[in-house]
């Protein structure tokens, strides 16, 4: 469960990203943020399994079922690949972007 503090800090980072992009654009500096969705990490799976008193497989299956694209959670490599793109010359005209890496979860939830 996400707390008000957690959600507020996420909003602050998003706003800061966009303002920093505007402030730094004249200097050729791009500022973007990656917004990871459900990621298949041992820490996240284990914590939720322990909280609910169920096996990790149940948590993993439930979380996978929530993701529209491919029906599975993302991995650290999915986030790394997004970062590589944003850092590359191919993204030279991209700044102030809040890039969801979530398999379509954001558009599903609204």
Would you give an account of this structure?
The protein is mostly helical. It has a single domain (4-101), classed as Rossmann fold (3-Layer(aba) Sandwich), CATH 3.40.50.720. It contains 5 helices and 2 strands. The protein has helices spanning 4-24, 42-52, 56-66, 76-87, 105-109, and strands at 33-36, 98-101. The protein has a two-stranded parallel sheet with strand order 1-2. Helix 2 crosses helix 3 (56-66). The mean pLDDT is 95.
Summarize the helix and strand pattern as letters. HEHHHEH
Q: Give the overall silhouette.
A: elongated
Whole-number mean pLDDT? 95
Assigned CATH architecture: 3-Layer(aba) Sandwich
- How does the helix and strand content classify structurally? mainly alpha
Please work out how many helical segments DSSP would assign: 5
Extended strand count: 2
How far apart lie the N and C ends?
Answer: 18 Å
Beta-strand residue fraction: 5-15%
> Stretches where pLDDT falls below 50 for ≥5 residues?
none
**Strand order in space, largest sheet:** 1-2
Structurally, the number of domains stands at 1
Q: Which radius of gyration do the C-alpha atoms yield? A: 16 Å
Corresponding CATH superfamily: NAD(P)-binding Rossmann-like Domain
